[in-house]
Known about the structure:
Order of helices and strands: EHHEEHHH
CATH superfamily: YefM-like domain
Low-confidence stretches: none
Number of strands: 3
Function: Antitoxin component of a type II toxin-antitoxin (TA) system.
Pfam family, one: PhdYeFM_antitox
InterPro entries: Antitoxin_Phd/YefM (IPR006442), YefM-like_sf (IPR036165)
Mean pLDDT: 82
CATH class: Alpha Beta
Number of helices: 5
Strand content: 15-25%
Family: Belongs to the phD/YefM antitoxin family.
CATH architecture: 3-Layer(aba) Sandwich
Protein name: Antitoxin
Shape: elongated
CATH topology: YefM-like fold
Number of domains: 1
Distance between the termini: 76 Å
Helix content: 40-55%
Structural class: alpha+beta
Amino acid sequence: MKVISSRDFNQDVSQAKRAARIEPVFVTDRGRTTHVLMSIEAYRKLSGQSETIVDLLAMAAPVALDVAETRSDDAWDNPVNRRG
Length: 84
């Protein structure tokens, strides 16, 4: 378990983020633990989340789309689009 002071955290956030990839980093303020920094993977495991909506959408199979079929030449024949 890594423990750093809030002063050290503020001076080198990148180092704290690197350490949090390996294990949670406890941040102290005047000797008292006030925050915990951890990787998103560790957080998801702790909270029981397996995947986010972004993960699920990224896994979706691509949809085949035939552009010729979806094009409507009649779109301009709509009376709403006509000016009289």
